[in-house]
Amino acid sequence: MISEFFILNSKGGLVVSKSIKDNLRKNLAEVFRIQVISNIQVGSSKNLSPVLTLGSTSFLYLKYNDLFFVAVTRSNQDCSIILEFMYKFVDLLNSIILTIKNNFISVGEILDEVLDNGYPQTMEPDSIRHCISDEKLQKRKNIRKNTNSGSETVSDSGLISRSTSFPTEANQLSTSDITWRREGIKYRRNEIFLDVHEKINLLMNATGQVLNSYIDGHIQMKTRLSGMPICNIGLNDSTQIMSDMPTNGFDDSLTGHVTHLSNCNFHQCVSLTKFDTDRIIRFVPPDDEKFELMSYRCQAPLPSIHTSQGINLPFIVKPIVTTSFARIIYRIHIHSLYSRKFSSKNVELKIPIPKDASTNSRSYKIVTSLGKTKVMPYDNCLIWRFSKYGGDQEASLEAEFQIQSNATTTPGNALMALAIDQDSEAWKKPPIQLHFEFNMSSLSGMAIKFLKVEEPTSYSTVKWINYISKAGSYEIRY
């Protein structure tokens, strides 16, 4: 896959190089410097692509902290996989080495471990740390600091190592079934942080009917647990996987809300033996690092549905936009559909206005029952903002703008002037956009039923579970 990998500084100097295949020229780093770095230095990098192809040779690169990470490949390779590897490689270096520029030898050692004959291998930090020689850590002056996980050693070079003993041979961990977690971890306080992130994407017409809607969600975790624990997460009984759905897309026999999940992807630490039957996610978590345990999509079962079906919609917006002579009039009503015991924050409606609408404060009128408004002339929109919006709450807005025209507008030629303006780009009526965020139950209805930790010592664990919901593309036509 990858024939050569090298790292260059901002001036094109070669700092790390790994040649994998012998069928490449030896001056490829110089070719990259001339073709890419020189163009960036002269300021002509506006339209540069992250993939440069010269003949049958392709250079894939990314820039990070004045360093260029470059992968060279021949023939037709999957660029997305290589770029994903490069980004994960940079993240791996940041998790192991504090300063990359002062540790190029260690970077080369890590590169030897993650690339085998040009193909990416394990990218787990705990597995790679064993491959860095301990002699370098012993020869440098160490600075020790105490954390709630025990003592941690940070050398002058920026290499991070735990005070617990490591296996002397790297293959002891690589041959293990659990490469993402080392043994002997101890914490004074055992904690689990679990966040359920969901982003709703929706298209609604002027009457409040949903034309299309789906939710993209993922479960993000970070654990500080001693030993080699096994975590069990149970989902609520109403959660169904796509394979469990009836052929008509909706189970009419169920009176309660049903959550249909599809496109489920799991972290490599997850064992799915009990997931299909009991909705239990069983796994040994990585230590003290954020990771995505699961990602999913929740799609409304029917293409055209009422707002109360399928997905727990947080808001319904009903706009009425009319034009009369040289004026445009907005009447917008917003209603929150969630419970009164909850509230959302940073609620904002972005209401498009024609580019020919007068933004002079004397030429428009805005009246609202709640919230604050602001006209953005450069963005051709009216912003209606609420710092906090309660559940089962309603608000209304009425706004009137005058339409400017080059021709003198009279009752006789008003319709002609309006027809001319309607042909302009501003009169294509882009949809109203709604933005919001709140921390409460998930919009899809998926919930964490339980979170249990199995460990021989049966220590107590502090568990933090949070639900974070936001608007993705939440649009309303009018």
Q: What's the alpha carbon Rg, rounded to whole Å? A: 29 Å
Number of self-contained structural domains: 3
CATH superfamily of the largest domain, called what? Mu homology domain, subdomain B
Ends apart, CA distance between termini: 51 Å
Spatial arrangement of strands, main beta sheet: 14-15-18-12-11-28-26-21-24-23
Number of strands: 28
* Principal-axes shape call: flat
CATH topology of the largest domain: Immunoglobulin-like
**Residues in helix, %:** 10-25%
Family: Belongs to the adaptor complexes medium subunit family.
InterPro entries: Adaptor_comp_med_subunit, AP2_Mu_C_sf, AP_mu_sigma_su, Clathrin_mu, Longin-like_dom_sf, MHD
Main location: membrane
Organism: Babjeviella inositovora NRRL Y-12698
Outline the structure in words.
The chain is mainly beta. The chain has three domains: 118 residues, Beta-Lactamase (2-Layer Sandwich), CATH 3.30.450; 156 residues, Mu homology domain, subdomain B (Immunoglobulin-like, Sandwich), CATH 2.60.40; 124 residues, Sandwich (Immunoglobulin-like), CATH 2.60.40. 15% of the residues lie in helices and 42% in strands. It contains eight helices and 28 strands. The strands form six sheets. The protein has a ten-stranded mixed beta sheet, with no helix packed on it. It has a five-stranded antiparallel beta sheet with strand order 2-1-5-4-3, with helices on both faces. It has a four-stranded antiparallel beta sheet with strand order 16-17-13-27. Strand 11 and strand 12 form a beta hairpin. The two termini are 51 Å apart. About 16% of the residues have low confidence.
